[in-house]
């Protein structure tokens, strides 16, 4: 089954404790991205990657890091999480660069930073 | 001012009703217009996609784009309880993709 998977689905952590949210897709997609979804603000792009070893900032990159060492994986790293990073996070992939291409979203990771 | 504005709802309608969901935008450069549907505790999934102005129909769903008014709509005919979800509009130009905040729709039997 073609899908984007994220782990963990739920995470409660404390301020300053480094964490990684994994994302993997099995569709051989070139383009992957991370979004956060907040009430009243909608989906906002954090980082995106056009291919292996190619990443760039989205609209809200502060406090996040990413890496793309393999085509299928695109982990999101929070080096020192803060309460304002409490949010619902989505990983997405699409077959090509170009925002008009259909984005396939993962199931989401709900993060709470205390 | 946000680039894309969408009424958050919630919108509650009886089964069988015609639903109209709308977004306005300020960036006249947007070329591609999409509607994503998001069920509770799931990621968004693409529902409809249109390029430039005009209408596009897919079963019970019709997407409408009016570029002169910077206004897009999604109509759902004969709405069903299974249509209960949050509907997000999205618009793009080049590599920029902007989502609306989503409208929560509830269709009751």
Question: What are the SSEs and their pairings?
Answer:
The complex is a heterodimer of chains A (114) and B (109).
Chain A lengths: L3 E4 L2 E4 L5 E7 L5 E8 L3 E10 L2 E4 L7 E2 L9 E3 L8 E8 L9 E2 L3 E5 L1
Parallel strand pairs in A: 2-11
Antiparallel strand pairs in A: 1-3, 3-8, 4-5, 4-9, 5-6, 7-8, 9-10, 9-11
Chain B lengths: L3 E3 L4 E4 L4 E7 L6 E7 L6 E7 L2 E5 L2 E6 L4 E6 L8 E9 L2 E4 L3 E6 L1
Calculate Rg of chain B over CA atoms: 13 Å
Q: Assembly type of the shown chains?
A: heterodimer
The computed structural class of chain B is: mainly beta
Low-confidence stretches of chain B: none
How many β-strand stretches of chain B?
A: 11
Q: How many whole angstroms does the radius of gyration of chain A measure?
A: 13 Å
Specify the number of helices of chain A.
0
Instruction: Please name the two chains that share the biggest interface, counting residues whose Cβ lies under 8 Å from a Cβ on the partner chain.
Output: A-B, 20 and 26 residues
Q: Please provide the ordered H/E string of secondary-structure elements of chain B.
A: EEEEEEEEEEE
Instruction: Report the sheet-strand fraction of chain B.
Output: over 45%
How far is it from the N-terminal to the C-terminal residue of chain A, by CA? Answer: 36 Å
Please count the helical segments of chain B: 0
Helix content of chain A: under 10%
Mean pLDDT of chain B: 93
Number of strands of chain A: 11
Low-confidence stretches of chain A: none
Structural class of chain A: mainly beta
The SSE string of chain A, one letter per element, is EEEEEEEEEEE
């Amino acid at each position: 089954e073609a899908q984007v998977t994220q782990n963990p689905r739920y995470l409660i952590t404390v301020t300053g404790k480094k964490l990684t949210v994994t994302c993997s897709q099995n569709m051989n997609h070139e383009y992957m991205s991370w979004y956060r979804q907040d009430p009243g603000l909608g989906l906002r792009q954090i980082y995106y990657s056009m291919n292996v070893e190619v990443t760039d900032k989205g609209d809200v990159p502060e406090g996040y890091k990413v890496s793309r060492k393999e085509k299928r994986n695109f982990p999101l790293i929070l080096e020192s999480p803060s309460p304002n990073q409490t949010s619902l996070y989505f990983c997405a992939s699409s077959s090509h660069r170009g925002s008009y291409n259909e984005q396939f979203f993962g199931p989401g990771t709900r993060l709470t930073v205390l | 001012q946000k680039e894309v504005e969408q009424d958050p709802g919630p919108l509650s309608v009886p089964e069988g009703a015609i639903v109209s969901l709308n977004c306005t935008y300020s960036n006249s450069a947007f070329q591609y217009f999409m509607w994503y549907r998001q069920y509770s505790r799931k990621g968004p999934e693409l529902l409809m996609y249109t390029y430039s102005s005009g209408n596009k129909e897919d079963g019970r769903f019709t997407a409408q784009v009016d570029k002169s008014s910077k206004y897009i709509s999604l109509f759902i005919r004969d709405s069903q309880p299974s249509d209960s979800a949050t509907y997000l509009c999205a618009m793009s130009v080049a590599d920029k993709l902007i989502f609306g905040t989503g409208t929560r729709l509830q269709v009751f039997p």
